[in-house]
What does this fold into?
Amino acid sequence: MKIVRRIGASPRERGSLSGETCPDIFELSDGNFAVIGTEATAALDDQLPQDAARADYERIVIISRETLLRAKRDIPEQ
It folds into this structure.
């Protein structure tokens, strides 16, 4: 599994001065996506809807609205 490309604008393009510690989205060689975000499992786990579940190895992460909206144009339809 390898990172194929960034999805959306880079942190620097979104206004990060250092461009080093911001949310990011990447498409992987296996077709999945990887997300860099703020870990929020403890804060949000008990708020998941009844039909949502999280495995022990999964984490809830937060990315900014701007990160996701600017990635929208790069997300494949299929």
